[in-house]
Specification:
alpha/beta
């Protein structure tokens, strides 16, 4: 899973990235500090892995991973060349989701002011600026492609016709200030063409509210406005204090847990952001467990057993025979896989089985 982190300059975007990736990078407090994107691949915390390992001794534990791309600060006019212009676009066309960091904090630690590029703190205005620039960038892509697509469609090829038809739908919607994801497209061929266009506004958005240290759960009036905006457009939203996360990132596990408890937080920001991204994209995890490794695998909600097996290797899906599945609750009750089987709790599932979150699996296949 890959997500691009965007936002205006000085909203704490790079601070959050550094905290999530535990990178010790000091960025100056001025616009455009990040010219080329920072990229970090981080393990997604999942307490279930430790619970499995309490009963299945293994050589290696492999969680799922989240790839984060920290994009240069976007300003009003970026789509027509202001600031870094369109240089950021190529970095986020291939990501699965957009994480938009929104400034809801007022002062930096110690009380000093942090300059806001627009002169004041207004998260909805900031969201509108970013969204408008992304829409305008996508509109340029569509308008630059539609003429060629129209000529190609005259060939009669279904693929070319689908591309032209979807561009004709996208152009007026983007011109009206609507993101591509707001357009309902049901035709599978046209859906495929939207993906190939790499439109930024076709991607789902997770708003990360960067909050003050005295508002860790994001209850301020500004945060409530952001929550309503996210709800209205079907996006996810979480509150994070990037400053505190920076401190947590430097601590060992014991001290981190102690500080989280003292602050009334259940988990660090990486887990909060990752779980919200999973919900946003309709993903969940299943596990494989054995002496060599215990591993989490990411799949779409609704994936069948063969599709889940295909995430491990395409041959597993092609030659799928059956899946042997049990739950973490079964493991914690019966202690071993052998005991689970003897208790009749090891399920044999076929090709039509829809995977549940947290399933522990062995796949049998033949190639």
């Amino acid at each position: 899973m890959e997500a691009g982190i965007v936002g205006l300059p000085n909203v704490g975007k790079s601070t959050l990235f550094n905290a999530l990736t535990k990178a010790n990078i000091l960025a100056a407090n001025y616009p455009f500090a990040t010219i080329e994107p920072n990229v970090g691949v981080v393990p997604v915390p999942d307490a279930r892995l430790d619970r499995i390992c309490a009963y299945i001794k293994t050589q290696k534990v492999i969680p799922t991973a989240l790839r984060l791309v920290d994009i240069a600060g976007i300003v009003k006019g970026a789509s027509v060349g202001e600031g870094l212009g369109n240089k950021f676009l190529s970095h986020i066309r291939e990501v699965d989701a957009i994480i938009q960091v929104v400034r809801c904090f007022t002062k930096a630690p110690g009380g000093e002011e942090i300059l806001h590029v627009s002169g004041s703190v207004d998260p909805l205005r900031d969201i509108e600026i970013i969204n408008t620039e992304l829409i305008l960038a996508d509109l340029q892509t569509v308008e630059g492609s539609i003429g060629k697509a129209e000529r190609a469609a005259k060939s009669g090829r279904a693929e070319d016709i689908a591309r032209y038809e979807v561009l004709k739908k996208l152009q007026p919607a983007l011109s009206e200030g609507k993101p591509a994801r707001a357009l309902k497209i049901d035709d599978p061929d046209q859906v495929k063409q939207v993906k190939q266009l790499g439109l930024i506004t076709a991607k789902r958005v997770l708003y990360v509210m960067n909050v003050d240290e005295d508002d860790l759960h994001g209850q301020s009036e500004a945060c409530q406005r952001v929550r309503k905006h996210a709800q209205d457009e079907g996006s996810e939203v979480v509150a994070v204090c990037a400053k505190i996360e920076s401190e947590l990132a430097t601590m060992d596990e014991a001290d981190r847990k102690e500080m989280l408890a003292a602050l009334g937080l259940e988990e660090p920001a990486l887990a909060t952001v990752a779980h919200a991204a999973y919900r946003l994209l309709g993903l969940h995890s299943y596990f494989t467990a054995g002496e060599k490794e215990v591993r989490a695998w990411t799949i779409p909600v609704g994936a069948t057993a063969p599709q889940a097996a295909g995430v491990i290797h395409t041959d597993f899906e092609k030659g799928f025979i059956r899946a042997e599945i049990y739950t973490l609750a079964d493991l914690e009750k019966h202690k071993t896989e052998k005991a689970i089987k003897e208790a009749g709790r090891l399920r044999i599932e076929g090709r039509d089985y829809v995977m549940a979150d947290g399933d522990i699996c062995h796949f049998l296949f033949n190639v």
